[in-house]
Amino acid sequence: xxxxxxxxxxxxxxxxxxxxxxxxxxxxxxxxxxxxxxxxxxxxxxxxxxxxxxxxxxxxxxxxxxxxxxxxxxxxxxxxxxxxxxxxxxxxxxxxxxxxxxxxxxxxxxxxxxxxxxxxxxxxxxxxxxxxxxxxxxxxxxxxxxxxxxxxxxxxxxxxxxxxxxxxxxxxxxxxxxxxxxxxxxxxxxxxxxxxxxxxxxxxxxxxxxxxxxxxxxxxxxxxxxxxxxxxxxxxxxxxxxxxxxxxxxxxxxxxxxxxxxxxxxxxxxxxxxxxxxxxxxxxxxxxxxxxxxxxxxxxxxxxxxxxxxxxxxxxxxxxxxxxxxxxxxxxxxxxxxxxxxxxxxxxxxx
Length: 351
Ligand code: ASP
Hints:
By secondary structure, this protein is α+β, with helices and mostly antiparallel strands. The protein has one domain: (Glycosyl)asparaginase (Glutamine Phosphoribosylpyrophosphate, subunit 1, domain 1). It is built from ten helices and twelve strands. The strands form two sheets. An eight-stranded mixed beta sheet has the order 4-3-2-6-5-1-11-12. The chain has a four-stranded antiparallel beta sheet with strand order 7-8-9-10. The protein is globular, with a radius of gyration of 22 Å. It starts with a helix and ends with a strand. It binds aspartic acid. Aspartic acid binds next to strand 8.
């Protein structure tokens, strides 16, 4: 009788252990990865002050801190990419949200996109001037409408209607971006073959190469992927120019295998259908993430005359951050199954 009771008690305790202790332990070891970028361009030690460099590192770490906290507590890839990009939009160092570059008309026109790799749902906004956080508007397009992309005043009316925070266009002003516009206009005057021919920002692109677009890609503890990108586009842009960031498959893409966010000379990324090309190389050509990223960004893009970089993560949590410019603000945290804490990398320059 006594032995029987002891056996039953042991069995009960063992069951408790299996149900409560083991699953908790297993949950702690589920892998996740977050990769971020803050734009690619002429980012060299020579044109950086120690204070500015410090500020960029701090901002990148802050974004990774937020993402790490969310991912460790089991939040979804979609929530993480949105929140991390919002943080970077509110950071005046980057060309997205506050701190966006100026158009030729001295305003700001913002583009953003988000994609959920679980179901290929996507949303984006283009050319918006008064939405404080375009990435949240992009998510609302995905979740609250039947559409994928809204632009200009229509997108703003939608954002206002659903109660997103609206701001005057001057909210996005910063002195450094104003200087960027001035430089771009001067350079354009010098370089334009025919000054009366509108170049739509082509020359400015070569001058003000410090883009600062922001992006985030994630694989979460459930193994789901998501991508988000937000930008003010290119300094001195005209005529409602839209870049690659809000175009699904060009600057932003996520499916069940890979999530991608791009930065660089948008026209090239659109023509190369960059983000989807990367995904296709992995899915259909059997290339590794690294092979595909290096080939597209370091071989094909410069061969065509373009410039820039991308971040991507695959289902296994493998991150890549290739670029063919002097630098790219970038970083990742990667928690693998056998590690207690995630590994963290933050970098600015090449090599
Ligand atoms: N790709 C963006 C655009 O062309 C710019 C950037 O990445 O900085 O609008």
